[in-house]
Amino acid sequence: MPPVSGNADKLADGQAHIWYARPEEVVRRGLVSRYESLLAPEEQARKQRFRFEESRLEYLVTRVLVRTVLSHYTGVVPEAWRFDRQPLGPPIVVHPDFPAVPRFNLSHTSGLIACLVAGDRDVGVDVENTTRTIGYLAIAERYFSPREVEDIRSLPEPAGRRRFFEYWTLKESLIKAMGTRISSGLSRFVFEPGADPVAVTFDESVSEDPAGWQFALHEIGPEHVLAASLRCMDGTSAQLELRETIPLVS
To answer: How far is residue 162 CA from its own chain's centroid?
Structure first.
């Protein structure tokens, strides 16, 4: 039996939560050493392999966020979790052998970490920092559908850049939820981020029903876009909540 705290918030079927954290708050509150004490030896080793301090901090906060989120729903103490990497999809829990561990997916970018959890469905999340310098039009022309490229081109700056990241995060989150690769083709999923709710069209190579998916798109402050993809269960969407956190504090 894994060590438990005795406190757990049950995640009911039909519920999904997106938890997000800001690494700058972790540093500001002096939590780095406390976070490092929760990592498994293999996680400590991997963190040290990152060249830049920002990347090490992102990795640290990502690992602690998933530990504390899973602990929130199970009562297992955060340091008890052990994970294994897999070629596709999120890390998998290999210890403890705890019943009903929520399904989860992670994403991180400069300044923001996110963890999406649900009890009964496939999920994927992606976050991007919209201020980073990239040739977004060239990327869109290479990977997106002609309709999506036309939409981006029709918008003035900075709206065009923002729309690119909306498309990118939606596509990335869906690929993660489906357990496939970016190399399988981003243009196979044609999104309408301006629709309410966000809509998608699949080309004939995708054996999925668009009605079987739910999407969410959020602006997290002026610099970040977050997108989530969730599989509908029995035709029913999840009740999705967005929650900001400082792991181990709030």
So the answer is: 18
Residue 49 included in any domain: yes
* 22 lies in some domain: yes
- pLDDT tens-digit series, residues 192-217: 999 999 999 999 888 899 999 999 99
Q: Which two structure tokens, joined as six digits, stand for 10? A: 């049950």
**Same domain for 138 and 92:** no
Q: Is there a single domain that holds both residue 145 and residue 73? A: no
Q: Answer yes or no: do 173 and 230 share one domain.
A: yes
pTM of the model: 0.93
